[in-house]
User: Which sequence fits this backbone?
């Protein structure tokens, strides 16, 4: 075990840490995360539209289309919001004007869309419109590509001083607009030739390219295990696993979630949704209380341990864990770089992923189609995320029991070690370092 941990710490962690700080991945992560507040608001209306009360569907039916409008304007347009923030964030990392970076990225994204001329009804034709199908999660890859292309072109022209410079007396906003004229012209002209003249659908090509990967992650047990393995392995060495792995897979998770929502809208049963493992699948059935399902560790520390230090850790981490905040546990116990906790911290998510995957696959519980607020206690969040399925609460409780059984012998061994240190007068700092 010690040899393996040394190998991971010396060989695997440094390159993964570099990946985690790579500017393009950071921009993608920040852009996608920035949309979550709007998505949470939008999903509230979707939840309200599907409350599990007798007679509610019939009562709400006349207002249903209006009620889901906020959801369509948030989740349905998330690629637009994310593209602007990603472009702004990437430009800022290059010390370029962030607003210009966001605007150019957004312009590039829209150039990849193909407006449709809607002429019906004849008495009031709508004219050219943008289909929403490519503006939501399905357009996320086009947004990422647009952001990288636009900001890198912008940076190239700035670095080579190929811009229109205005006198200092000109207001900064006007000056920035003129500085963006040449790179903006190149960006839009290039993408117009690709999409408008050549007719190449970049978004469709990207979706086709990533479709096999989406299917592997969403509908294959091995694929569903990969993100959990990588995220928790990195957390074991003090690196925020979700910030690295999530930057890569979250766009795929959002596409899965979007397809599940569309399937429900078309009448598909919630036990037969296209994808098993979008992000809420992990949020509510695997990482209960945070990475590693450490809410059960808080319970064991507080009620089963004799070590004063571990009891105190359990006491101050219990409430945050209920609301899925477990950094106090990861850095306080600590879970990271802890040979006693390494095996269960990495094993529990894999076991719970397997149990939950099989439960969804065989229709024992509903699939996931909604993103409730991540700070909700797991039984409530899982119930809402699965379309108000009470069976999901049972699954979550079962997973907590399984996690407790796996953690128990390792926690007892850690407690024995910490208690011995306390009796021998070892300071908390020394035991933590050890």
Assistant:
């Amino acid at each position: 075990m010690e040899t393996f941990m040394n190998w991971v710490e010396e060989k695997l962690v440094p390159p993964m840490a570099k990946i985690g700080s790579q500017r393009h991945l950071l921009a993608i992560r920040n852009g996608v995360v920035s949309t979550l507040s709007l998505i949470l608001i939008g999903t509230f209306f979707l939840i309200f539209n599907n409350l599990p009360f007798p007679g509610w569907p019939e009562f709400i039916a006349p207002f249903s289309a209006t009620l889901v409008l906020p959801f369509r304007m948030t989740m349905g347009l998330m690629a637009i919001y994310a593209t602007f923030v990603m472009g702004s964030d990437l430009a800022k990392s290059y010390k370029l004007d962030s607003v210009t970076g966001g605007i150019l990225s957004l312009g590039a994204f829209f150039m990849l869309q193909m407006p449709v001329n809607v002429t019906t009804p004849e008495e009031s034709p709508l004219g050219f419109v943008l289909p929403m199908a490519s503006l939501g999660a399905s357009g996320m890859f086009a947004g990422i590509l647009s952001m990288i292309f636009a900001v890198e072109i912008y940076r190239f022209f700035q670095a080579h001083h190929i811009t229109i410079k205005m006198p200092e007396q000109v207001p900064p906003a006007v000056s920035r607009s003129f500085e963006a004229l040449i790179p903006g012209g190149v960006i839009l002209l290039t993408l117009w030739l690709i999409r408008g003249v050549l007719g190449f659908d970049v978004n469709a090509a990207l979706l086709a390219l990533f479709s096999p990967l989406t299917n592997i992650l969403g509908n294959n047990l091995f694929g569903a295990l990969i993100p959990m393995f990588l995220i928790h392995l990195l957390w074991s060495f003090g690196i925020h696993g979700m910030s690295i792995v999530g930057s890569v897979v979250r766009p795929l998770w959002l596409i899965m979630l979007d397809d599940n929502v569309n399937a429900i809208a078309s009448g598909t049963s919630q036990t037969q949704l296209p994808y098993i493992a979008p992000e809420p699948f992990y949020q509510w059935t695997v990482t209960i209380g945070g990475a590693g399902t450490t809410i059960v560790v808080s319970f064991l520390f507080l009620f089963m341990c004799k070590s004063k230090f571990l009891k105190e850790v359990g006491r101050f981490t219990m409430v945050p864990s209920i609301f899925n905040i477990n950094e106090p546990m990861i850095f306080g116990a600590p879970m990271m770089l802890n040979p006693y906790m390494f095996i269960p911290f990495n094993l529990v998510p894999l076991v719970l992923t397997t149990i939950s995957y099989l439960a969804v696959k065989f229709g024992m519980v509903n699939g996931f189609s909604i993103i409730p607020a991540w700070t909700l206690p797991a039984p409530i969040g899982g119930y809402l995320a699965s379309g108000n399925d009470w069976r999901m609460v049972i699954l979550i409780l079962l997973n907590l029991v399984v996690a407790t059984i796996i953690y128990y012998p390792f926690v007892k061994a850690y407690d024995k070690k910490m208690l011995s240190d306390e009796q021998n007068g070892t300071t908390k700092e020394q035991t933590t370092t050890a």
Q: What stands out?
A: The mean pLDDT is 86. The chain is about 70% helix and 0% strand. The beta strands are 116-118, 127-129.
